[in-house]
Amino acid sequence: MEFGVPMLSTVQSCALRGIDAVNIAVEVNSCERGDLKFIIVGLPDAAIKESCDRIFSALVNSGYAIPYTRTTVNLAPSYIRKEGSFYDLPIALGVIQSTGQSYLHNLSEFIVAGELGLSGKIRGIKGGLTFAIKAKKEKKKLLLPVEAAQEASFVDGVEIFAVNNLNEAVKFLTGQIKLVPLEHRNFLSLLKNEDSLDFSEVKGQESLRRAVEIAVAGAHNILMIGPPGAGKSMIAKRIPSIMSMPTFDEFLETMSIYSAAGLLMAEKNAHFERPFRSPHHTISNAGLLGGGSIPCPGEISLAHNGVLFLDELSEFHRATLESLRQPLEDGSVTISRSSGKVKFPCRTMIVGAMNPCPCGYLGDKTRRCKCSHLDIQRYRSRISGPMMDRFDIQINVLAVPIEDIQSKKFSESSMDIRVRVEKASKIQTERFKSSQNGRNAHMSHGEVVKFCRVDGESSDLLATAMKQLGLSARAYDKILKVSRTIADLECEEKILPHHILESIQYRSLEMVIDGR
Ligand SMILES: Nc1ncnc2c1ncn2[C@@H]1O[C@H](COP(=O)(O)OP(=O)(O)OP(=O)(O)O)[C@@H](O)[C@H]1O
Ligand SMILES: [Mg+2]
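Above are the sequence and the adenosine-5'-triphosphate SMILES. Below is the predicted complex in structure-token form.
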């Protein structure tokens, strides 16, 4: 390919910062004279510095010449650290234009990102959905690898083009070929099919089902304590099926987190249902909260707007559980790196499950518990008081009676429960329309005072419970919040004594130990 007059070329691209994209201008300048030198400046990481050989090989194998003079690539603004392989395609396009090999006259209309293979093939990148949200805001078109473009097409109102190789990208940008923008994909196409787990399969366990319904209705954290085989894990896995349908904004927010983690490309995780994450108890702090040299969201953020299920809670490292405390209060995790801070949202409902004691049968009517009081105390002390306090609802689960197991009757289906949950959710949306919090569980102390007024009888009930159970001030607020949700489920404006009484039951874990 012939060289024309060298010039400065600018290609618009993006960098991922948490779940947001920021503009990066890829400037390429080829000098008229001088020895071949290819320099990338603007705080690139090692992967970007290494991209030079990849880009040169892709250029040659696609029929273009590599620059034979000094060429400088500047990734601006220079104060943002650039990571990953997003810039291969923008740099290659910049080189082709700046060396005068082709004039890409449509380039300024696009945000471009993609990794190049040695043959010139364009490989996938993460963050497609995030880039699309950015392109929409910037009123730009988007040029991406195929998989990332498919992911991006969930965003309406932005023209997204998918390219397979460098040649195709150049021909498209010079107007030699025409490409059709990807069709916008409706997120409703991602509704899970009928094989979803359903509450109708759960026999008996009426009080646990009730507690779970309340927890879901108000987004309260719930801890289930019971013997092996009682159905704790079974019920937890069915929780997303009774949660209110996510709004499109919630769906996009959750999917942006998956996109930033590179988990959306294969689409396996793209369901229009709330996420359900169930990390193993051996998980590290970084795995749970997020981390890595290029900050990646952890399980708590992947569960944003959904459920984080901590099965066998007592087996988790105490320090790992403790690290959850602050993010749970804040609804977001901040990861600090030398390159800056990245914030990931993590408004999630925590569902915990554990046995009541090491042998698992404390409180069981049919089997005798073999554990000493000390064994039980030691077992329980693996979860600190403050952590336990964060479970608004703590419920003691009993084994399923044989009559219930053999019963031919189907229990209430998830769809029926969801109707009630949706109703309670609507009341909360109305209540918190001028506040940042959307659900009863996330009320600030001021909001508890405002929305959870109680009469004299309820006040006395609360005082007695506080004294007898030795509850904290946080627990006091939590009882009120749960009572608010119970009242909402009944579409009752006032919190009544029976709402308070039911709510107090869900803080009575201590009684289980002493009542053996
Ligand atoms: N209420 C129930 N209705 C129908 N089946 C049930 C019920 N409870 C348990 N089962 C059956 O028992 C199996 C084991 O239940 P599950 O794994 O939920 O117990 P678990 O309470 O989590 O026990 P563990 O403490 O050992 O983890 C389920 O897969 C299901 O087949
Ligand atoms: Mg289990």
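The chain has a mean pLDDT of 88.
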